Amino acid sequence: MFHAATEEDVIRGDVTDVYFTRTVEILRKNNIDKKVRAELVVKSLPENYHWGILAGTEELLALIEKLNLSLNVRAVREGTLFRIHQPLIEIEGRYLDFCVYETAVLGLVCQASGIATRAARCVAAARGKPVVCFGARRIHPIIAPMVERYAYLGGCEGVAGVKSASLLGIEPSGTMPHALILLYGDTVAATRAFYDAFGQRVNIISLVDTFNDEKFEAIRVAEALGNKVFALRLDTPASRKGSVVDILREIRWELDLRGHKNIRLFLSGGLTEEKIRELNELADGYGVGTYISNAPVLDFSLDIVEIEGAPLAKKGKLSGSKSFLRCNACRREVVWPYQASPPRCECDGEFVELLQTAIQNGKVTRAGRLSVEDFEGNRDYIKAQVKASI
Ligand SMILES: [Zn+2]
User: Fold this and answer.
1) Looking at the chain, which terminus has fewer C-beta neighbours within 10 angstroms, N or C?
2) Are 30 and 72 in contact (CB under 8 A)?
Protein backbone atom coordinates (compact mmCIF):
# COMPACT_ATOMS: atom_id res chain seq x y z
CA MET A 1 0.00 0.00 0.00
CA PHE A 2 2.77 2.46 0.88
CA HIS A 3 5.94 3.26 -1.01
CA ALA A 4 8.21 2.26 1.84
CA ALA A 5 11.08 -0.17 2.40
CA THR A 6 10.76 -2.82 5.11
CA GLU A 7 13.22 -3.44 7.94
CA GLU A 8 14.26 -6.61 6.09
CA ASP A 9 15.06 -4.57 2.96
CA VAL A 10 17.38 -2.37 5.03
CA ILE A 11 19.04 -5.35 6.75
CA ARG A 12 19.58 -7.08 3.40
CA GLY A 13 21.32 -3.94 2.15
CA ASP A 14 18.74 -3.25 -0.53
CA VAL A 15 18.25 0.35 0.55
CA THR A 16 21.57 1.40 -0.92
CA ASP A 17 22.99 3.37 -3.80
CA VAL A 18 23.88 1.35 -6.85
CA TYR A 19 27.50 2.52 -6.84
CA PHE A 20 28.02 0.56 -3.64
CA THR A 21 26.62 -2.68 -5.08
CA ARG A 22 28.81 -2.19 -8.15
CA THR A 23 31.84 -1.48 -5.93
CA VAL A 24 31.23 -4.72 -4.04
CA GLU A 25 31.12 -6.63 -7.34
CA ILE A 26 34.37 -5.11 -8.56
CA LEU A 27 36.23 -5.67 -5.25
CA ARG A 28 35.01 -9.27 -4.94
CA LYS A 29 35.94 -10.11 -8.51
CA ASN A 30 39.46 -8.82 -7.92
CA ASN A 31 39.85 -10.23 -4.41
CA ILE A 32 40.34 -6.85 -2.78
CA ASP A 33 39.14 -7.36 0.76
CA LYS A 34 40.73 -4.76 3.03
CA LYS A 35 40.20 -3.75 6.59
CA VAL A 36 39.38 -0.07 6.99
CA ARG A 37 38.31 2.52 9.49
CA ALA A 38 35.71 5.03 8.33
CA GLU A 39 34.38 7.97 10.30
CA LEU A 40 31.17 9.91 10.35
CA VAL A 41 31.55 13.69 10.36
CA VAL A 42 29.67 16.77 9.26
CA LYS A 43 31.69 19.19 7.16
CA SER A 44 29.13 21.97 7.02
CA LEU A 45 25.91 22.67 8.89
CA PRO A 46 22.69 24.07 7.41
CA GLU A 47 21.54 27.68 7.66
CA ASN A 48 23.35 29.61 10.38
CA TYR A 49 23.86 26.63 12.70
CA HIS A 50 27.02 26.61 14.77
CA TRP A 51 26.38 23.17 16.21
CA GLY A 52 24.33 20.04 15.65
CA ILE A 53 22.97 17.27 17.86
CA LEU A 54 23.83 13.69 16.98
CA ALA A 55 20.76 11.43 17.01
CA GLY A 56 19.79 8.15 15.45
CA THR A 57 22.71 6.13 16.85
CA GLU A 58 20.26 3.83 18.65
CA GLU A 59 18.89 2.62 15.31
CA LEU A 60 22.35 2.61 13.75
CA LEU A 61 23.78 0.36 16.50
CA ALA A 62 20.72 -1.91 16.30
CA LEU A 63 21.15 -2.24 12.53
CA ILE A 64 24.87 -3.04 12.77
CA GLU A 65 24.27 -5.61 15.51
CA LYS A 66 21.56 -7.22 13.39
CA LEU A 67 24.04 -7.63 10.52
CA ASN A 68 26.05 -9.99 12.71
CA LEU A 69 29.35 -9.00 11.15
CA SER A 70 32.80 -8.65 12.61
CA LEU A 71 32.65 -4.87 12.99
CA ASN A 72 33.80 -2.53 15.74
CA VAL A 73 32.18 0.84 16.27
CA ARG A 74 33.26 3.75 18.42
CA ALA A 75 30.55 6.36 18.92
CA VAL A 76 29.79 9.43 20.99
CA ARG A 77 26.75 9.33 23.23
CA GLU A 78 23.35 9.84 21.59
CA GLY A 79 22.50 13.53 21.96
CA THR A 80 26.09 14.80 21.83
CA LEU A 81 26.36 18.41 20.68
CA PHE A 82 29.04 18.72 18.03
CA ARG A 83 30.61 21.11 15.59
CA ILE A 84 31.91 20.55 12.08
CA HIS A 85 34.87 18.20 11.50
CA GLN A 86 34.44 16.40 14.83
CA PRO A 87 34.40 12.59 14.41
CA LEU A 88 31.22 11.18 15.94
CA ILE A 89 31.16 7.55 14.90
CA GLU A 90 33.95 5.31 13.62
CA ILE A 91 33.31 1.97 11.96
CA GLU A 92 36.17 -0.52 11.76
CA GLY A 93 36.02 -3.71 9.75
CA ARG A 94 36.25 -5.22 6.28
CA TYR A 95 35.06 -2.63 3.80
CA LEU A 96 33.20 -5.29 1.83
CA ASP A 97 31.15 -6.12 4.93
CA PHE A 98 29.61 -2.70 5.40
CA CYS A 99 30.04 -0.93 2.05
CA VAL A 100 26.40 -1.33 0.95
CA TYR A 101 25.09 -0.08 4.31
CA GLU A 102 26.58 3.40 3.96
CA THR A 103 23.33 4.76 2.47
CA ALA A 104 21.21 3.45 5.34
CA VAL A 105 23.73 4.34 8.05
CA LEU A 106 23.89 7.95 6.84
CA GLY A 107 20.14 8.17 6.35
CA LEU A 108 19.51 7.05 9.90
CA VAL A 109 21.65 9.73 11.49
CA CYS A 110 21.25 12.58 8.95
CA GLN A 111 17.51 12.93 9.39
CA ALA A 112 17.27 12.08 13.09
CA SER A 113 20.06 14.56 13.87
CA GLY A 114 18.42 17.25 11.74
CA ILE A 115 15.16 16.89 13.64
CA ALA A 116 16.75 16.69 17.10
CA THR A 117 18.89 19.74 16.31
CA ARG A 118 15.98 21.85 15.14
CA ALA A 119 13.81 20.77 18.07
CA ALA A 120 16.65 21.71 20.45
CA ARG A 121 16.92 25.12 18.77
CA CYS A 122 13.16 25.75 19.14
CA VAL A 123 13.29 24.66 22.77
CA ALA A 124 16.23 27.00 23.40
CA ALA A 125 14.36 29.88 21.74
CA ALA A 126 11.35 29.23 24.01
CA ARG A 127 13.51 29.62 27.15
CA GLY A 128 11.76 27.07 29.32
CA LYS A 129 8.29 27.44 27.85
CA PRO A 130 6.97 24.17 26.44
CA VAL A 131 7.30 23.29 22.77
CA VAL A 132 5.10 20.42 21.56
CA CYS A 133 5.68 18.65 18.25
CA PHE A 134 2.63 18.96 15.96
CA GLY A 135 4.56 17.78 12.90
CA ALA A 136 3.17 14.29 12.24
CA ARG A 137 0.72 15.50 9.64
CA ARG A 138 3.48 16.94 7.47
CA ILE A 139 5.34 13.70 6.83
CA HIS A 140 4.75 10.18 5.59
CA PRO A 141 2.86 8.35 8.36
CA ILE A 142 5.31 5.44 8.33
CA ILE A 143 8.10 7.69 9.63
CA ALA A 144 5.95 9.90 11.89
CA PRO A 145 6.95 8.02 15.08
CA MET A 146 10.62 8.34 14.17
CA VAL A 147 10.31 12.09 13.52
CA GLU A 148 8.40 12.70 16.75
CA ARG A 149 10.83 10.52 18.71
CA TYR A 150 13.74 12.76 17.75
CA ALA A 151 11.69 15.94 18.25
CA TYR A 152 11.10 14.70 21.79
CA LEU A 153 14.74 13.73 22.24
CA GLY A 154 15.68 17.27 21.13
CA GLY A 155 13.66 18.66 24.03
CA CYS A 156 10.04 18.96 22.92
CA GLU A 157 7.83 18.60 25.95
CA GLY A 158 5.45 16.30 24.15
CA VAL A 159 4.26 15.04 20.80
CA ALA A 160 0.75 15.11 19.38
CA GLY A 161 0.95 11.77 17.57
CA VAL A 162 -0.79 8.93 19.43
CA LYS A 163 1.42 6.16 17.99
CA SER A 164 4.56 8.24 18.48
CA ALA A 165 3.70 8.92 22.12
CA SER A 166 2.86 5.29 22.78
CA LEU A 167 6.23 4.16 21.41
CA LEU A 168 7.91 6.78 23.59
CA GLY A 169 5.92 5.66 26.63
CA ILE A 170 4.47 9.13 27.21
CA GLU A 171 0.99 10.64 27.05
CA PRO A 172 0.28 12.39 23.75
CA SER A 173 -0.18 16.17 24.03
CA GLY A 174 -2.91 18.03 22.22
CA THR A 175 -5.61 20.63 22.25
CA MET A 176 -8.72 20.57 20.06
CA PRO A 177 -9.17 20.86 16.29
CA HIS A 178 -11.17 23.54 14.49
CA ALA A 179 -13.42 20.68 13.35
CA LEU A 180 -14.78 20.16 16.88
CA ILE A 181 -15.73 23.82 17.17
CA LEU A 182 -17.28 23.86 13.70
CA LEU A 183 -19.34 20.78 14.56
CA TYR A 184 -20.58 22.41 17.77
CA GLY A 185 -21.02 25.74 16.03
CA ASP A 186 -19.62 27.56 19.07
CA THR A 187 -16.24 27.78 20.83
CA VAL A 188 -17.61 27.79 24.38
CA ALA A 189 -19.93 24.83 23.72
CA ALA A 190 -17.10 22.81 22.18
CA THR A 191 -14.71 23.66 25.03
CA ARG A 192 -17.35 22.69 27.60
CA ALA A 193 -17.86 19.35 25.82
CA PHE A 194 -14.09 18.81 25.82
CA TYR A 195 -13.98 19.53 29.55
CA ASP A 196 -16.92 17.22 30.28
CA ALA A 197 -15.26 14.36 28.41
CA PHE A 198 -11.60 14.86 29.35
CA GLY A 199 -11.41 17.49 32.11
CA GLN A 200 -10.34 14.92 34.71
CA ARG A 201 -7.50 13.55 32.57
CA VAL A 202 -5.99 16.33 30.50
CA ASN A 203 -5.39 20.06 30.60
CA ILE A 204 -8.15 21.73 28.62
CA ILE A 205 -6.80 24.00 25.92
CA SER A 206 -9.43 25.88 23.97
CA LEU A 207 -8.92 27.08 20.42
CA VAL A 208 -10.13 30.66 20.12
CA ASP A 209 -9.65 31.60 16.47
CA THR A 210 -12.38 29.68 14.65
CA PHE A 211 -15.26 32.13 14.24
CA ASN A 212 -14.72 35.51 15.82
CA ASP A 213 -12.10 37.91 17.05
CA GLU A 214 -9.58 36.13 19.27
CA LYS A 215 -9.82 38.67 22.09
CA PHE A 216 -13.61 38.42 22.42
CA GLU A 217 -13.58 34.62 22.06
CA ALA A 218 -10.87 34.44 24.75
CA ILE A 219 -12.98 36.55 27.12
CA ARG A 220 -16.12 34.46 26.39
CA VAL A 221 -14.34 31.16 27.08
CA ALA A 222 -12.63 32.50 30.22
CA GLU A 223 -15.85 33.97 31.62
CA ALA A 224 -17.87 30.85 30.85
CA LEU A 225 -15.41 28.22 32.03
CA GLY A 226 -12.88 30.01 34.26
CA ASN A 227 -10.42 27.65 35.90
CA LYS A 228 -11.64 24.68 33.90
CA VAL A 229 -9.57 26.10 31.06
CA PHE A 230 -5.82 25.59 31.31
CA ALA A 231 -4.91 27.56 28.21
CA LEU A 232 -6.19 29.19 25.06
CA ARG A 233 -4.63 28.37 21.71
CA LEU A 234 -4.30 30.75 18.80
CA ASP A 235 -3.75 29.23 15.39
CA THR A 236 -4.84 32.35 13.53
CA PRO A 237 -4.69 31.93 9.74
CA ALA A 238 -2.10 33.98 7.87
CA SER A 239 -4.80 36.05 6.11
CA ARG A 240 -5.96 37.43 9.51
CA LYS A 241 -2.71 37.49 11.37
CA GLY A 242 -1.65 41.12 11.54
CA SER A 243 0.56 41.46 14.61
CA VAL A 244 0.33 38.35 16.75
CA VAL A 245 2.33 40.09 19.46
CA ASP A 246 -0.37 42.79 19.65
CA ILE A 247 -3.18 40.23 19.66
CA LEU A 248 -1.46 38.33 22.48
CA ARG A 249 -0.85 41.50 24.45
CA GLU A 250 -4.53 42.46 24.17
CA ILE A 251 -5.75 39.02 25.20
CA ARG A 252 -3.36 38.87 28.13
CA TRP A 253 -4.51 42.30 29.31
CA GLU A 254 -8.20 41.48 29.04
CA LEU A 255 -7.80 38.11 30.80
CA ASP A 256 -5.70 39.58 33.63
CA LEU A 257 -8.16 42.43 34.09
CA ARG A 258 -10.94 39.87 34.63
CA GLY A 259 -8.96 37.78 37.08
CA HIS A 260 -7.82 35.04 34.68
CA LYS A 261 -4.07 35.43 35.16
CA ASN A 262 -3.68 31.66 35.36
CA ILE A 263 -5.07 30.97 31.86
CA ARG A 264 -2.11 30.47 29.59
CA LEU A 265 -1.71 31.40 25.95
CA PHE A 266 -0.52 28.79 23.46
CA LEU A 267 0.41 29.41 19.87
CA SER A 268 0.61 27.23 16.78
CA GLY A 269 0.62 27.67 13.02
CA GLY A 270 3.74 28.41 10.97
CA LEU A 271 6.03 28.89 13.97
CA THR A 272 9.81 29.14 13.60
CA GLU A 273 12.63 29.81 16.07
CA GLU A 274 12.56 33.45 15.09
CA LYS A 275 8.81 33.75 15.70
CA ILE A 276 9.15 31.96 19.03
CA ARG A 277 11.74 34.53 20.12
CA GLU A 278 9.46 37.41 19.04
CA LEU A 279 6.45 36.00 20.89
CA ASN A 280 8.14 34.54 23.92
CA GLU A 281 7.47 37.39 26.32
CA LEU A 282 3.72 36.89 25.97
CA ALA A 283 3.23 33.29 24.87
CA ASP A 284 3.28 30.41 27.36
CA GLY A 285 3.77 27.51 24.97
CA TYR A 286 4.02 26.46 21.35
CA GLY A 287 2.87 23.76 18.97
CA VAL A 288 5.48 23.49 16.23
CA GLY A 289 4.77 21.35 13.17
CA THR A 290 6.36 21.79 9.77
CA TYR A 291 9.37 23.65 11.08
CA ILE A 292 10.47 20.61 13.08
CA SER A 293 9.26 17.75 10.90
CA ASN A 294 10.72 19.41 7.80
CA ALA A 295 14.02 20.20 9.54
CA PRO A 296 17.02 20.34 7.22
CA VAL A 297 18.99 17.10 7.46
CA LEU A 298 22.56 17.29 8.73
CA ASP A 299 24.93 16.23 5.95
CA PHE A 300 27.03 13.54 7.57
CA SER A 301 29.57 11.78 5.42
CA LEU A 302 31.25 8.44 6.04
CA ASP A 303 34.89 8.77 5.04
CA ILE A 304 37.61 6.15 5.01
CA VAL A 305 40.50 7.36 7.18
CA GLU A 306 42.63 4.23 7.48
CA ILE A 307 43.28 1.16 5.30
CA GLU A 308 44.97 -1.94 6.73
CA GLY A 309 46.23 0.09 9.69
CA ALA A 310 47.79 2.87 7.59
CA PRO A 311 46.31 6.37 7.67
CA LEU A 312 44.77 7.33 4.33
CA ALA A 313 41.99 9.75 3.47
CA LYS A 314 40.77 11.65 0.43
CA LYS A 315 41.88 15.26 -0.03
CA GLY A 316 40.14 17.74 2.26
CA LYS A 317 40.00 15.20 5.06
CA LEU A 318 42.31 14.37 7.98
CA SER A 319 43.51 10.76 7.87
CA GLY A 320 43.86 8.31 10.73
CA SER A 321 41.73 7.20 13.61
CA LYS A 322 40.93 9.99 16.08
CA SER A 323 39.85 10.85 19.57
CA PHE A 324 37.18 13.45 20.18
CA LEU A 325 38.02 14.99 23.55
CA ARG A 326 36.04 17.38 25.74
CA CYS A 327 37.51 19.11 28.80
CA ASN A 328 35.57 18.17 31.91
CA ALA A 329 36.14 21.62 33.40
CA CYS A 330 35.92 24.27 30.63
CA ARG A 331 34.26 22.07 27.94
CA ARG A 332 36.90 22.94 25.33
CA GLU A 333 36.99 20.31 22.61
CA VAL A 334 39.87 18.92 20.56
CA VAL A 335 40.22 16.24 17.91
CA TRP A 336 43.41 14.28 18.54
CA PRO A 337 45.18 11.27 16.98
CA TYR A 338 43.73 8.11 18.49
CA GLN A 339 45.82 6.49 21.19
CA ALA A 340 48.32 9.37 21.23
CA SER A 341 48.62 10.66 24.78
CA PRO A 342 45.97 13.36 25.16
CA PRO A 343 46.98 16.97 25.76
CA ARG A 344 46.37 18.79 29.01
CA CYS A 345 43.73 21.49 28.73
CA GLU A 346 44.82 25.13 29.08
CA CYS A 347 42.49 25.41 32.07
CA ASP A 348 44.30 22.46 33.68
CA GLY A 349 41.10 20.39 33.42
CA GLU A 350 41.10 16.88 32.07
CA PHE A 351 40.12 15.89 28.53
CA VAL A 352 37.59 13.09 28.39
CA GLU A 353 37.24 10.81 25.35
CA LEU A 354 33.74 11.11 23.89
CA LEU A 355 34.18 8.26 21.38
CA GLN A 356 33.47 5.06 23.29
CA THR A 357 33.42 1.49 21.99
CA ALA A 358 29.75 0.95 21.22
CA ILE A 359 30.06 -2.26 19.18
CA GLN A 360 32.77 -4.87 19.70
CA ASN A 361 33.00 -7.63 17.14
CA GLY A 362 29.42 -7.08 15.99
CA LYS A 363 27.82 -6.91 19.44
CA VAL A 364 26.59 -3.75 21.15
CA THR A 365 28.69 -3.19 24.28
CA ARG A 366 27.41 -2.11 27.66
CA ALA A 367 28.73 1.41 26.99
CA GLY A 368 26.96 1.39 23.62
CA ARG A 369 23.70 0.35 25.21
CA LEU A 370 23.98 2.91 28.00
CA SER A 371 24.67 5.69 25.50
CA VAL A 372 21.33 5.21 23.78
CA GLU A 373 19.05 3.56 26.35
CA ASP A 374 18.75 6.39 28.86
CA PHE A 375 16.37 8.44 26.74
CA GLU A 376 15.40 10.89 29.50
CA GLY A 377 19.06 11.22 30.48
CA ASN A 378 19.95 12.03 26.88
CA ARG A 379 17.23 14.71 26.78
CA ASP A 380 18.82 16.33 29.84
CA TYR A 381 22.28 15.89 28.31
CA ILE A 382 21.15 17.81 25.21
CA LYS A 383 19.58 20.57 27.30
CA ALA A 384 22.73 21.04 29.37
CA GLN A 385 25.02 21.15 26.33
CA VAL A 386 22.77 23.59 24.45
CA LYS A 387 22.60 25.82 27.51
CA ALA A 388 26.40 25.87 27.72
CA SER A 389 26.68 26.67 23.99
CA ILE A 390 24.37 29.67 23.55
ZN1 LIG B 1 39.61 23.04 30.05
Assistant:
1) N
2) no
